[in-house]
Amino acid sequence: MSILFVSxxxxxxxxxxxxxxxxxxxxxxxxxxDLAAMDTSAQPGDDFYNYANGAWQRxxxxxxxxxxxxxxxxxxxxxxxxxxELVHGIVNSNPQAGxxxxxxxxxxxxxxxTAAIDAAGMAPVQADLARFNAISTRADLSRVLGEQxxxxxxxxxxxxxxxxxxxxVFVTQGLATPGEVLPYFLxxxxxxxxxxxxxxxxxxMVRIRGEYRAYIERLLxxxxxxxxxxxxxxxxxxxxxxxxxxxxxxxxEDIPSSAAVWSRAELGxxxxxxxxxxxxxxxxxxxxxxxxxxxxPAITRLSALVASAPIQSWKDWLAFHQINSHADAxxxxxxxxxxxxxxxxxxxxxxxxxxxxxxxxxxxxxxxDAVGQAYVQRYFPASAREEVQGMVENIKTAFAARIQGLxxxxxxxxxxxxxxxxxxxxxxxxxxSWRDYSHYEVSASDAYANEVNGERAEYAHQLAKIGHPMDxxxxxxxxxxxxxxxxxxxxxxxxxxxxxQPPFFNANADAAYNYGAIGAVIGHEISHSFDxxxxxxxxxxxxxxxxxxxxxxxxxxxGEALARQxxxxxxxxxxxxxxxxxxxxxxxxVAGLQAAYDAYHAxxxxxxxxxxxxxxxxxRFFIAYAQTWATKMRxxxxxxxxxxxxxxxxxxxxxxxxxxxxxxTAFNVQAGQAQYLAPDQRVRVW
Length: 686
What we know:
By secondary structure, the chain is of the alpha+beta class. It has 28 helices and 11 strands. The protein has helices at residues 19-22, 48-59, 71-91, 100-112, 114-120, 126-133, 138-147, 196-199, 203-222, 228-245, 249-252, 264-270, 276-282, 296-308, 311-324, 332-345, 355-379, 382-404, 411-423, 447-463, 511-516, 518-527, 549-567, 583-603, 617-628, 635-644, 650-653, 661-667; strands at 68-70, 167-174, 177-187, 261-263, 290-293, 425-429, 485-487, 492-496, 570-572, 575-576, 631-633. The strands form 4 sheets. Strands 2-3-5-4 form a 4-stranded mixed β-sheet. Helix 9 (203-222) packs across helix 10 and helix 18 (382-404) packs across helix 24 (583-603).
């Protein structure tokens, strides 16, 4: 959970509650916790994760078609069952042509008809391959690279574009241009997760590089491309150069240093090599005069590489990535080879998911709002939305109260921090308006065309935002997504319907459970507005330093202490969490959990929480939090997470509790126990 983006300002103010919560009877609530998952032989102060999740950890097997399992998987299984029922009903209803239901049915039927996909062979992609093969000049190459430009619409990973395109585009308000919506240019072009996979001397990375080089050759061979070995070597060598051109993951996460805005003329001056007239015209950006150069050094180096690397290498690279990025819509031999590398080699997953389930994932990508609108109408009650909205207001109030109580913060800094909390826009469950897919042509028989047309439709949708005021209510996740997100440029949050279910939210459970589970998620996302990157944005979403020098120094000192704390966590022998890379998420965990705890206590209205199953309210709160981070990962997936992800693995996020004084009191944690931190070592960011 991002990971990218009030009413009252004191806990003494009246708390907001939804109708469902206010009308709930006073009878004892369900505990909500999974008591069978716990290992009560473990001492909370020595091993809190296993105390909360030890039996689950021992007894749970990772399914053959998964690289990891945990609470998000549990919630996604429920959502998958619901969307399966929903989509099958739509497919079997003979929907009227031209409707969203018809698009859903056509997409699903084409995607799941593997016999037709196999029979078509490589025919669907031939026009694209011919387009690449016709490149003969640098201007041709620039034009085709512009034609390939696509929109990045994943706010959790908007700072690294992925594999299909040399550059990607993300469209929103400029970091330092409040009120002006701009296309951001992002680095891309790699088939491996990120640059260190190409450049690191780590033995596992060296092995993966060798297997990737072999995979490129295998995919080209299966696609019937001639001279596959020589082409594969050229592609791999070019990608090594692309990787060297990229900024590092840490640099990519440094948002305040990435606010450059280049004029149309500056593109040519600062990034010579690409024929920008040809590129931008083909990318439908020919009239655009200003661009957010998020990865400015990488854009310069990648542009130079377009001019210097052999044209044949680029033609081979384009062909490979067109096939690789649409492998699921091409013959099964290609699809299986793609999974063997990306699923098994990179993530350790032995078995590919069922095609029908993968079709649901693809629908979420290409027709996510259409499926989402039907999903919430059928499965998401208004009472749940209202109750969670009430919890959001309570936690915002608690967070504001914490800001009010910070002794080290100057009044000017405090005023803007409170303004951020007051003006944050929170979306719960689903957006208030839905996407229009009327310009997206979906075939009942051509899965490849559906993906390509879907990418073009999304690109057009994103470009249409340029020149208009930013929509602060825009959603960047579909309602059926089990996740949540903070959007710092919008000063907004999204909490999709699918995360508002067990094990994160249970309308029948007591407040301790819900505040420890979904409450901590809500607090986490609010806190992202004040993590090491979010704190650089003001209440309007503009990148602006609103801190005094002393306040910023204090804040950074706490962040450095938290980074050192996470550096000590060892995921595999010799492999430690990167506390700097994961700092934003860890700050949000600490601050969000504390705000959720304060809001939980305020919700008790001065009453003592009941003891349920021998557990106090505070104990239930902290156990609920730890159980949301129950995590089991294959070693390959764990290595990939540590290397590339800004989120620490869940078993370490559960240990956020070590920084809250209330956890020590709740479980009588004493000095000398393994997870005890002295009071001056507990990080209190907010």
